[in-house]
Specification:
This protein is an alpha+beta fold. The protein is 23% helix and 28% strand. It starts with 8 loop residues before the first helix and ends with a strand.
Length: 261
């Protein structure tokens, strides 16, 4: 016997709406990814995504004075963006589009158009630069393959053997190649820091990599920057974020790395 079911138009409409909403929500949460480890001084409001680093269309980044926002495209992993709040006031940036450049300052009216993937905004009062943003496509794998677990290089050495990070040791060709892979993989992010701060400043940084591949200590060469210069501080802070976020191989002993960026 053939059973007949009565069609419920309201039920069908509800299911269709829920399905459409789910698809729309998935699209919204695929706009940007917030790179929390390389950012500082950021809070996020209005984000409807379930995971904190997935950023939905309509979300808003709140940048405290001196804050740096780092993000990347969900649809193109090689495309990253970075913004720096240079003003003494908080700045809000909204995610207003699913297409590049994705973002727009919410409370700054005097902003330049995006030119060469860069935008600047002034404070509208004194004409001082309040916000800088740069977007770029990176060409390097942030986690280079073939990086072996080593403990020494030209400037990479065990603390148990050598406690002075400023004293060089004889090189080992394989270990030096490992170091070059690390520095090369960092370079696109370092270049993004330079573009953001419009600087050609070069400074030597020395950092300690623990046995788990984590970095907590980064030391700038004291004679190569001005501690009272806010611009130098912002550049070094950006470089430091890149160094700390990098995925290092584990080793049997803590090691030092040093490089002139």
């Amino acid at each position: 016997m053939l059973l007949k079911f009565k069609t419920n138009p309201l039920l069908i409409s509800t299911l269709f709406f829920l399905g459409y909403t789910s698809i729309l929500h998935a699209d919204e949460c695929g706009v940007l990814r917030y790179l929390v480890n390389k950012s500082n001084g950021i809070t996020i409001s209005g984000n409807t995504c379930k995971t904190a680093d997935d950023i939905a269309l309509g979300s808003e980044f709140n940048l405290m004075p001196g804050a740096r926002l780092w993000f990347k495209s969900q649809r193109s992993a090689d495309t990253q963006g970075i913004c720096q709040n240079r003003s003494p006031n908080p700045i809000r940036i909204s995610v207003n589009s699913d297409q590049p450049p994705w973002i727009k300052p919410s409370d700054l009216a005097n902003c330049s158009p995006w030119t060469n993937n860069k935008m600047n905004c002034d404070d509208g009062k004194d004409g001082l630069n309040a916000l800088s943003c740069v977007i770029t496509t990176l060409n390097s794998d942030p986690h280079p393959k073939g990086l072996e677990q080593r403990t020494t290089s030209v400037r990479m050495r065990s603390l148990q053997i050598q406690g002075d990070p400023n004293k060089d040791e004889p090189s080992q060709s394989n270990a030096e190649a490992d170091k070059e892979k690390v520095i090369s993989a960092m370079q696109p992010d370092i270049s993004l820091c330079r573009a953001l701060n419009e600087t050609d400043t070069h400074i030597k940084l020395t950092w300690l990599v623990d046995t788990n591949g984590h970095v907590n200590t980064v030391i700038p060469a004291a004679d190569e920057y001005d501690e009272q210069n806010d611009a130098d501080k912002l550049v070094i802070d950006c470089f430091t974020a890149v160094i700390k976020d990098f995925s290092y191989p584990q080793s049997s002993q803590a090691v030092w790395l040093s490089n002139q960026f």
